[in-house]
Amino acid sequence: MRHYRSGNPMMENATVEVLLATYNGERFLAAQLDSLLAQTFGEFTILVSDDGSSDTTPAILRAYASAHPGRFCILPPCARLGARANFARLIDAASADYVFFCDQDDIWLPEKMAMSLERMVQLAATSPPGSPLLVHTDLAVVDSGLEVLGPSYFRYVGINPARNSLGALLLGNVVTGCTIVANRALFETARPVPSDASMFDHWLALVAAGLGRISCIDQPTILYRQHGSNLIGADRAGAATFARRFSRIVLGISTLTVLVRYSRNAAILLERYGDDLRPGDKARVRAMARLWSRPRLWRLPSL
């Protein structure tokens, strides 16, 4: 494990890991790995979990690990998990003081890690010791050839990152996983990631908002590649997107609607951490946990 040595006593000898989840990523993986190794902050290791790739992804990972001794730790092969469980596996295996999360098909801008760690130090300096802390950033939306589609992901999809209170996050996530750096207090408190929760980034954001703090850097640090095969991509804000969301809330079109997952998130949050939540937050979490048991016409007023 590499140690981050700096003049700041809060970061002296701290360890940093990048958690990289891969699956059939041969098309863009090498470019992503090159962008990691080109970071201006270089004292980190890369922990990889491959989700049973059938292409050359494992060979690419082995080649980079061989070319950069001590920089990569590749977890043993596993049965196909899916993206949610693959990232949960990485979180379970994490052991550093600070962890970043990485998709296989983006490009990290050179200052991403340095900027995020600097903000983490600032956040820790104004937080009680042992607080679960999360820092995230904006992204630039690009196509498969890295042509810019939108210079700000927040504006592209209509996200307000300032809406990061627990009450707001219960209704929607503003934190993109591949931009996150989490401190040890956060990922140790949040794990294991519930198997029936939504994606790991939303779960980490809920835990950080309920028990600690979140800070956003309103500047892109990643080229967020859209290539037609993204598991979760960038949906441009607009009337059509709003109509889809509204119909899910009011009509309950699918039993697997987004709000069902959000309600499950709240129920798990209440069960695990209810005694540690602030009274107002606890009431909001309880209301969200019970949302889907209410009649359809009462759901929107409850929200």
Q: Evaluate the radius of gyration.
A: 19 Å
CATH 2nd-level architecture of the largest domain: Alpha-Beta Complex
Number of beta strands:
10
Q: Note poorly predicted spans.
A: 251-256
The name of the CATH topology of the largest domain is Spore Coat Polysaccharide Biosynthesis Protein SpsA, Chain A
Gap between N and C termini:
45 Å
* Overall average residue pLDDT: 89
Q: What is the highest CATH level, the class of the largest domain? A: Alpha Beta
Helix fraction bin? 25-40%
Shape, please? globular
Order of helices and strands: EEHEHEHEEHEEHHEHHEHHHH
Structural class call reads alpha/beta
For CATH, the homologous superfamily of the largest domain is named as Spore Coat Polysaccharide Biosynthesis Protein SpsA, Chain A
Count helical runs: 12
Number of domains: 2
In terms of DSSP E residues, the strand content is 15-25%
The biggest sheet amounts to:
10 strands, mixed
Give me a quick take on this structure.
This protein is of the alpha/beta class and 303 residues long. It contains 12 helices and 10 strands.
